[in-house]
Amino acid sequence: MLTSLFPLGWQHYLLGGLLIGLGTALLFVFTGRIGGMSTVFSSTWSYVVKGPFFQQPRFTGSRGWRLVYAAGLVVGAALWWLGFTDGTPLSTHVPAWQLLLGGFFVGYGARLGNGCTSGHGICGLGSLQWPSLMAVLTFMATAFLTANLAARWLA
Questions:
Q1: pTM to 2 decimals?
Q2: Whose CA is closest to 114, among 42, 49, 47, 29?
Q3: How far is 133 from 124, CA to CA, in rounded Å?
Q4: Which uninterrupted H or E stretch holds 5?
Q5: Is residue 98 within a helix (H) or strand (E), and if so which, with residue range?
């Protein structure tokens, strides 16, 4: 059964989860900061958009380290791709309009939920935050429902 769920093995998922947990824990221990990606988006827009929402001190005061945080994700993905794959570029057959629409809904949902899945699921649960537990349960229930509906609709 494990091979049907994880045809490429499960070890790299475990390693990835441990490294993400270690990274967010070290960020909090050494800086007292909580790493979530939805605030990276808003703080980055604060460079360009001069509207009052994006010019809040929580965005303008943290955008420097948040850009470094986001760059670490990009560099980490590039290192994985260069070190653990055959170098073949990855692609998708999903049309660009669907990717853009999905990105819009994810971004809107992250703002509506006061954080993204990484912020709530990794950092919020790790610090035993009750609202994060509720958010993660909502994310998961919605994902299960959507996956099942999509599987039936696309079949």
A1: 0.68
A2: 42
A3: 8
A4: helix 2-5
A5: helix 96-112
